[in-house]
Amino acid sequence: MNDMTANRSLWLVLGLSIPILLSIRRSLNRFHRSSKLPENYERVLILGASSGIGRAIAHIYASRGARVCVVARREAELETVAEECRALSTTAGHGEYQAGGKRVIHVVADFSEVEDMVRVRTALETEWRGLDTLVVAAGVSALKPLMEVAGVEKKGKLYTPPQADETALQKTVEVTAAAMKGNYIGPLVAAVSLIPLLSTTSPSPSILLLSTLASVIPAPTRTLYGSTKSASFMLYQSLSIEHPDIHFAFVLPATVEGNFRASAVDGGEVREADPNTKGLKREVVARRCVKALDEGDGAVFLPWLMSWSQLALWAFPDFVKWRAMKKYNFSTDDAKHDVPLF
Length: 342
Prior knowledge:
Belongs to the short-chain dehydrogenases/reductases (SDR) family. The protein is an alpha/beta fold. It is built from eleven helices and eleven strands. A seven-stranded parallel beta sheet has the order 5-2-1-6-9-10-11, sandwiched between helices. A two-stranded antiparallel ribbon has the order 3-4. α2 packs across α9, α4 packs parallel to α6 and α10 crosses α11. The longest helix has 36 residues.
């Protein structure tokens, strides 16, 4: 047992040193995208731009004169964001047009629908003759434990009702399909639609996937959300190997402020402390997203301490699980309620 503990401690020390070494390496080999692509010529598509982090990212790019295309399903909100971007761009001294195309455009579309994404691609080809940066910031939330989605409650060793009937199972499948559509199918359709355009028309093609810490660290009540976000995270990581000419960045924040959870596909309620007081600020996450694209970063965890979260899960799994249960106010009769020791 002592040898096992010593070995685990050794691996832990080595693991903790990896982020530091990688940080030093990135500093020595810092990528400056602006040397290939001036900021005011960059063509940026933001999926999920009508609110939250996507909206904040659109504001940043508009303020520095980039050409910005904002996409979302909600027309009224999207038009508002487009007007905000035009105003920010004008205030910063940039004209309405750049290189023969409008500096700010918007397309009402669902990124999980094939016809909609073809329309988006056609708009980019028509207006800008290409694309430099794809930001995938759209997604959906799900907040219930999986058995609760099926209407089954556990008390001790008993389930009420004893089993999920056909209706309950069908409901679970439908809710899961909605989560898959927003968190996996959408990113998949976006990638297949736009990778060739990015690769052939940009001097520095880049893609950013806004993911979540829940995609790599399991948590109760986030069963559907975490698993579907994890699927798109793995999808884009694999794509980064298949398309080495495109820079892929991934941002995985912990809880972020805002009303993203209000429209959970499973109708679940927020269980953690108020995200609007405890969560990361949208503008902070947005700035880090843009920086990741500008500087060629890979996976970025927010806050930065979460870069070690996967190592912590390996080294101290019971503690990480206990913290996740505490955060989401989740308990079971079988769970250990004492704080696990390292």
